[in-house]
Design goal:
The protein is an alpha/beta fold. The chain is built from eight helices and six strands; from the N terminus they run H-E-H-H-H-E-H-E-E-H-E-H-E-H. The protein has one domain: Alpha/beta knot. The strands form two sheets. Strands 4-6-3-5 form a four-stranded parallel sheet. A two-stranded parallel sheet has the order 1-2.
């Protein structure tokens, strides 16, 4: 099952990525029609009238890449990072899988260390990450929890909160 890519998710997560120093933001979607939507939105902001209209959005969207699968994104990262070790980090509204649960403080410390390691944060939409993706991740972050029982943030909200916890001052 795959959900639709929204225009807001594309540029809001790109803007959060730029704000928090994320080098690349991969949109991973298997459906060609959804990939076409992403390409059209990207084209407007990177090549069309939007590029001149909003240079800040242009800057943020230069970080966005499109991939069919997590494996393709990892392959692209290995090429871009010249073979550096890439850890996958799953995020979810619920805890699942056999990945090592890590705290935000521990992952933040890893990100700030002087190693050459790279990290791919995986966010899901709709029903969340596929179970197999979460199970295969190197780490999983705890869910974002509010004071009540309701727990269903949009992916762009969750990405912003998590990026702030990992990279904010």
């Amino acid at each position: 099952m795959a959900t639709s890519v929204t225009n807001l998710d594309i540029h809001d997560i790109a803007r959060a990525s730029a704000t928090y120093g994320v080098e690349r933001y991969f949109i991973i979607h298997p459906a060609p029609a959804q990939q076409d939507i992403v390409r059209r939105v990207m084209s407007f902001w990177l090549e069309g009238a939007g590029a001149a209209y909003n240079p800040h959005r242009f800057e943020a969207l230069t970080r966005v890449r499109l991939a069919d699968t997590v494996e393709q994104a990892l392959s692209d990262i290995h090429i871009l990072e010249k073979g550096r070790r890439v850890y996958t980090v799953a995020t979810a509204a619920r805890t699942e899988g056999s990945a090592a649960l890590t705290s935000y403080a521990d992952l933040r410390s890893r990100l700030e260390s002087e190693t050459d390691d790279a990290y791919l944060l995986l966010f899901g939409t709709g029903w969340g990450l596929p179970r197999q993706t979460a199970e295969e991740a190197d780490f999983i972050l705890p869910p974002l929890l509010g004071p009540g029982q309701y727990n269903h943030l949009s992916v762009r909200s969750a990405a912003s909160v998590i990026l702030d916890r990992l990279r904010g001052h």
